[in-house]
Inverse folding.
């Protein structure tokens, strides 16, 4: 594209759009129709310039012009409780459903990694000795030891709040840092699986793996699922940097990034539930089978939520992104 020729051909349209916007509401019916048509054309011009001949100054001017025109054409919009309901019943579960090809393999591979680490530690006493002194290991793994008292070491409410905060931060980091080619996400996942594997391995080495699972599974099923969803979404965001598909890299990242922000909000709610289970159910006096049953029930409800509500919304075209009217006007580029 010859940028000078393009600007010369369309400058009058941009100036006319700017003039109409400055007049605000003092427009005739014909002028309002003209403003809409100019807004659509200018948005197309902006997409062409961004994809073919990006010029910082011209792009900045047209971006501002398109934003002003969009605000005038669509008007201001206030969020309402209907937006929250739509997000919880369609947007969030659809986003989780659509990213399942990323977080399900992430969950499977991470679980296998934790199991391998646990087996390695449980079957190699020299590895156990490198983790802590024998006295410290006995203090952690004995009946009534640190692994068991950890879940009742603080009042349930404050413990649940602390757990929720820590897990929400980990999930948010997976989502935000995914843009760095997903490498920080892999590190965060590894640390989580390492901690899980070490605990399982040490407790298994003294024949108390059943006790460990009885403490971890009630809250861990839902908690780890939320972490895997966040990690899978972060890895998907990182892959978008490498392969944006038919859209420009900037547009694809913006689309995935907006969905990731919504995912962070939804996962914070999921982690709130797992934190409540960890604070109130895990250290409770309920039988082990009842505590694990509560964890399984919460996990199955989450899967039903994602696959029933999310699957239906995804098939109806829901992506978890904002409404089309609120997005920047973009044109697909060649793959």
């Amino acid at each position: 594209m010859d940028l000078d020729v393009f600007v010369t051909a369309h400058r009058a349209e941009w100036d006319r759009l700017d003039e109409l916007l400055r007049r605000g509401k003092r427009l005739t019916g014909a002028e309002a129709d003209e403003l809409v048509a100019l807004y659509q054309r200018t948005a197309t011009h902006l997409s062409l310039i961004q994809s073919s001949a990006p010029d910082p100054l011209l792009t900045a001017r047209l971006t501002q012009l398109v934003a002003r025109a969009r605000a005038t054409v669509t008007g201001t919009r206030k969020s309402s409780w209907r937006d929250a309901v739509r997000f919880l019943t369609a947007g969030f579960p659809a986003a989780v459903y659509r990213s399942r090809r990323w977080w399900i393999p992430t969950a499977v591979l991470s679980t296998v990694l934790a199991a391998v680490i646990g087996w390695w530690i449980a079957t190699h006493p020299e590895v156990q000795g490198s983790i802590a002194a024998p006295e410290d290991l006995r203090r952690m793994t004995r009946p009534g030891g640190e692994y068991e008292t950890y879940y009742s070491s603080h009042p349930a409410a404050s413990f649940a709040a602390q757990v929720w905060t820590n897990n929400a931060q980990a999930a948010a980091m997976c989502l935000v840092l995914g843009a760095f080619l997903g490498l920080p996400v892999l590190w965060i996942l590894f640390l989580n699986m390492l901690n899980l594997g070490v605990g399982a391995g040490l407790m298994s080495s003294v024949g108390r793996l059943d006790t460990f699972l009885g403490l971890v599974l009630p809250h861990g099923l839902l908690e780890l699922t939320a972490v895997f969803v966040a990690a899978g979404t972060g890895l998907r965001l990182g892959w978008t940097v490498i392969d944006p598909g038919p859209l420009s890299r900037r547009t694809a990242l913006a689309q995935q990034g907006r969905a990731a922000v919504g995912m962070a909000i939804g996962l914070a709610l999921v982690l709130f539930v797992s934190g409540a289970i960890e604070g109130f159910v895990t250290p409770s006096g309920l039988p082990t089978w009842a505590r694990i049953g509560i964890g399984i029930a919460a996990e199955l409800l989450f899967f039903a939520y994602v696959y029933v509500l999310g699957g239906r919304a995804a098939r109806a075209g829901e992506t978890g992104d904002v409404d089309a009217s609120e997005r920047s006007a973009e044109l697909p580029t060649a793959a």
The mean pLDDT is 84. The chain has 13 helices and no strands.
